[in-house]
Structures are given as structure tokens and as C-alpha cells.
Amino acid sequence: MLAAPGGLGVGVEDVVIHDPEDPPDAHPGDLVLVIGARGRSAAGAIRAAGRSGAAAVAVKNGSAVVHVAADAGIALLEVGHEARWEQVEALARGVVDAARAGGEADHGEVLGDLFSLAQTIATLTGGLVSIEDTASRVLAYSRAGDEVDELRRLSILGREGPERYLAMLREWGVYQRLRAGEGIVRIEERPDLGIRRRIAAGIHAGSQPLGTIWVQEGAHPLTESAEVALLGASRALAPQLIRHRMLPSPELRLREDLLAGLLEGRLDVESVADDIGADPGKPAMVLGFSLPRDRAATDRQLRRAELVHLITVHTAAYRRSALVSVIGGRVYALLPDLPEHAEPRILALAKEIVGTARRHLEVGVRAALGGVVPRLSEAAASRGDADSVLAAMARGHGTADVASLADVRAEVLLSEVLAFLGEQPRIRDPRLTELVAHDAEHGGILVPAVLAYLDAFGDVRRAARELNIHPNTVRYRVRRAGEVSGIDLADPAQRVLTQLLLRL
Predict the structure, then answer these.
(1) In whole angstroms, what is the distance from residue 140 CA to residue 138 CA?
(2) What phi and psi, each to the nearest 5 degrees, are found at residue 398?
(3) CA-CA distance, 127 to 129, in Å (whole number)?
(4) Looking at the structure, do residues 256 and 379 belong to the same domain, yes or no?
(5) Residues 114, 189: one domain?
(6) Which of 59, 166, 419, 488 sits most deeply, having the most CB atoms within 10 A of its CB?
(7) Which residues form the PucR C-terminal helix-turn-helix domain (predicted)?
(8) Which of 289, 465, 292, 470 has its CA nearest to residue 386?
(9) Beta strand residue intervals within 188-246, DSSP E
(10) Same domain, residue pair 404 and 436
(11) Which contacts qualify for 59-66: CB closer than 8 Å, 24 or more apart?
């Protein structure tokens, strides 16, 4: 940054490339990359960008035109003479696209956050920091300092580690140690190879590597707390890199938002159908997928992102207009334009997705088929069916990883009846309310006995086995419950009502 007449708060909306031989075509908010001219020869392009209201210009040998940018009222960035313009453009556009796709409320400027974090780590460690992904691509780095070694210089200019240096690091076992888990890896100075002393730490989500933080020692030794700071940074960066991996393209983000809006009733169905190329008058179905909650939050996020990609590929192969989105921690896939008798094929598709997730993502996934609805506008009802099936599966009903409403219909309908009763205190029997209150004060043994007795259709021995008590004890507790409440379990209507309300 050589000049910033408007301060550092000027917003960048887009990245454009300008060749001085072409007519000016910048707009307000543009970051203009001036190629084909450097130093004073770029003065005309800088003035034109200033007149258009562009946010900033980037040129090589910018120190020669600082006064021009100041007069034009536009920020001036100087690009190193070794840097290739396509790499500069990719870096800048990556930050802008990430912000545009994510939005401030949802994701923030993911790559921008990484640069800010890199600078913070540099301050805490006293070194020069770069953050890379698992393919050794440079995602962010701290501001340039003195004593930059050849490895860092080439990595940043090339946006990835140079192969001859990567080969040496692999030969020394550095990457093997970084992938092994948490911990600091030390690389001693090798002046003959252009490598200064550095420390590194792997970034992980559970056991899965996400990337690496490198801290190169500059003109001064690293701080005493550098390794502690680096370890903390490697843990703090895991969610950032997961967000970076999960950030969809603008087109994919639009499709995700369309599905979420449709299933939540926020969007006009006709508009959604036009955008995805579906017929709103044809049948549709929603598939729901859930991940187990026995993993760390960061690992679960990463697995969910991978699952979204997997589901997208499989469902798009079945229906070109399929939509996939994450809502409330679950992944939903909308399958529009269904032919007649599509359920068997969709059941096979769901089983294929679950099996692939188990083999390649090493994670157990549950899948639920919502009911087929006659038109796209009723997709929310199909999603409700899928949610109910997943809830029944989570309660232990059914042993399969894939289920449809038909497989657990009784459990789903019972759950809906109980939910209705829960919202209608007027139709509850006060005698059962008193029984529950009495039982809570006296050891809580009567209600379980009555429920087991009713679930066993009055078979006392079966109920006793379920509770692991003597049959006579079941008889006594059921009789005692009748005395306390006044409920007559010989009456069929009272029996049904008792079973429902005690379940509630």
C-alpha cells in the first residue's frame, strides 16, 4: 500500500484487469490491476480509474506514481516485479468472491480473516507467517519483513511451495510429522539451501489434516512463547479452514438458498422452479440426512461439507434439477420432476449415498425419505416427513440406516399424536397428572410398571422381564397405580388414554 487518500475503509466490490491499450472500463468499487504498463507509463490508467470512482489500482513500480494516485484520490497498491498478474488476480478475486458468496452475517470474509490471523500469529511469534492448505497452496501470509528466505519468497510469489523445496521437506519427514497430529515441528537453518530456521504446526479437524502454519525466523529470534502461540493458532485456525473448504461458489450458494427458502416457505415456488429448471406441477420428494453427534464440532462440520458434495453428485446424476442444502445441521436434497413409482429408485439412491459415505468419508449417516408430494409447492411437507423419520430413527426405531415414512409410520404417527396432546392440556385426564406427581414423590416406580404392563397387552410376565422384576411386583404396582389415580385399566378407552398420556 503506497497511497490511500480515502483511508483503509474503502470497499472493494470487484477485481478487473486493465490494459492501457484498451479504453477505460472501471466502475465504482473496482480494484483495477494495471497490466502492460509500470511506473510512469501507468499514470493515464490511474487517472482514468480515479475518475471512474474505482476503489484502488495495483501497478508494478508504483513508487514512481504515488503523487498521481494521490491527486486522483485513489488507493495505490504496488505489485512486486516478480509476481505474475494471474496470481495477483486470483488472490484478490478469491477474497472478494469469498466475501460476496458468504455474506457478512453468514461467513464473513474468510480469506480476509486468514490474512488477519496470519498477521496476529506473526506478532505473537515474532516471525514471518504463512498458512497453507494440504496441497501446499498458500492461503494467506503476514506482511513482508526483513530476512525473507528463498523458500518463503518463492512460495508467496508462486502461491504454492516450490517443488524442489517440498521434495526436501518430504525427504526430511517434515510433512509426515505435521500430519501425525498436534505438535510443533522444527526445521533448522540451512544457509546452503536458502532456508532460515522455522517452526511449523499442522492444522487438523479430528484426525484429518487441513493445512499447515509456517513461521520463519527473520532478523530477530522468535519469541519465547512462539511455540505455545503457534500451537494455539493451529487449533484456532481449524474452523477457519473448514469454512474456507465449505464456502460454495456463488452459483452453488444460490441453489442452496433457493432450497432453504422453498423448504422454509420464504420463496415463491414458481420462481424457484424457473431458476432450477423444474416443473412445479410434477411430483417431488425430499431426502433428509443426519450425521452422528459423537464427533468433535469441527470434525462434524468438515464431514458435513464433504457429505454435501457427495449427495450433490449422486442426486444430480439422478435428477439434473436436484437441490442440496444444509438446514439446522441436517442435509436435505430436493428431487423434483419425479416419474411414477419413483420410490424404489430413490430408496436405492439413498442406500448408495449412505454406503459411499461409510466407505469414503468413514462416517455413519442416516437417510430418511420424505413422502412423495404431488407438486413442488408441497416440498415442505415432504421435508417434515423426512424430519419425523430421522427423529424416529434417532429414538431407536428400526435398525437400518435408511428408512422411509412407511417403515416407521406407527412411530411417527404416535409422535404426532403425543405432540398434539402436549399442546392441548384441556384434554388430559387430571387423574393421570396426579398419578405422575405422586409417583415422582415416591420413587418413580408405578408409572414404568403401568406402561410396561400396557405395552405387553397385560402380559405380566413379559412386563416383568422388561423391567427385570418379579411378576408379583408388577401386579402390585399396577394395582397400586389404580388405587392412587382411580383409573380403571379394565376399561378399553381408559386404557388407551392412560398409555398415551403416560408416554407423554
Answers:
(1) 6
(2) 90, 145
(3) 6
(4) yes
(5) yes
(6) 59
(7) 446-503
(8) 289
(9) 198-205, 208-216
(10) no
(11) 59/34, 62/2, 63/2, 64/39, 64/40, 65/39, 65/40, 66/2, 66/3
Exposure string over 139-150, b if 16+ CB within 10 A, otherwise e? bbbbeebeeebe
pLDDT-derived band of residue 254, with 50, 70 and 90 as boundaries?
Answer: low
Residue at 230 is within a domain: yes
**How many CB atoms within 10 Å of residue 52?**
16
- pLDDT tens sequence across 90-99: 778 767 766 6
Q: What is the pTM of this model?
A: 0.51
Compute the half-sphere exposure of residue 291: CA atoms within 13 Å on the CB side of its CA.
27
Residue 453 lies in a domain: yes
The CATH code of the domain that includes 429 is 1.10.10.2840
Name the DSSP class of 199.
E
Q: 404 and 444 share a domain?
A: no
Q: Tell me, what CATH number does 337's domain have?
A: 3.30.70.270
Mark whether 114 and 204 lie in a shared domain.
Answer: yes
What type of residue sits at position 403?
A
C-alpha cell at 488: 380403571
**Distance from CA of residue 489 to its chain's centroid?**
52
Alpha carbons within 13 A on the beta-carbon side of 264: 11
Q: What pLDDT does residue 451 have? A: 92
Listed residues 63, 78, 101: the one ending a domain: 101
| 41 and 62 belong to one structural domain | yes
CA 42 – CA 62 distance, rounded (Å): 9
User: Mean pLDDT across the stretch 23-35?
Assistant: 86
249's CB contacts (< 8 A; 6+ apart) are 97, 101
Please tell me the distance from the alpha carbon of residue 77 to that of residue 65, in angstroms, as a whole number.
11
C-alpha cell at 389: 423419520
Residue 466 domain boundaries: 424-502
Which burial class, exposed, middle or buried, applies to 185 when counting CB atoms under 10 A from its CB (0-12, 13-18, 19+)? buried
